[in-house]
Amino acid sequence: MIAGLAFELIWLADMDAVLDDPRTRARFARDEFMPYWAVPWPASILLAEHVLNNARREGGCAIELACGIGLVSIAAARAGWEVTATDRSPEALRFTRYNARINGVRLNCVRRSDWRCLWRGPRFELVLASDVLFERRNVAPVVRWLRSAVAPGGVVLLSDPDRGSAEGFRTAAESEGFRVEGFPREVVGPHGLPVRGTVYRLTAAGDPIEAADAGR
Known about the structure:
Layout: H1 15-20, H2 22-31, H3 42-54, E1 61-65, H4 71-78, E2 82-87, H5 90-102, E3 109-112, E4 124-130, H6 139-149, E5 150-160, H7 169-175, E6 178-188, E7 194-204
Parallel strand pairs: 1-2, 1-4, 2-3, 4-5
Antiparallel strand pairs: 5-7, 6-7
Helix pairs in contact: 3-4
């Protein structure tokens, strides 16, 4: 249950087997790709809960960076957004499509995207990302991708479990013209254990805030 709503999700049963798979090792050697998408990270639960409680918008357009198994995209769709779910992994996108279907949710679009390349499509009122700052070198390209995807007057919501690797995120975001607010959050996870972290709300400095009441 998240924000009083039930979610049914599937993901890989044996992450260790995937990490030990020679194909995973070969891909890591080729482009440093790891299948982090394959489990529901706690930060995605934080962000899903935040969106459902504080960012409802019937008919607005949203995009999620690195959707993984699709929890946040599905939550945003249930909150009334028309959602484009993106991930660099085709396998993640297949899981997202399936999870959306079993939850009775229609996603507007499911497509590949990678924060190493700026977003080149239409821009969005709401941009979502969870636990994408797991390496310090990710911070700058993630911020640039977020800036390329958010529409004027739009809002970015990014959740992080307070990793040390996220240090520098606020400075990087401010250097791209964002105003940054951080809200500590705690929710009860699926197994009854607390999930803690921070939901960051980014808005372009000087832009009118019209897209989503992201709450405090």
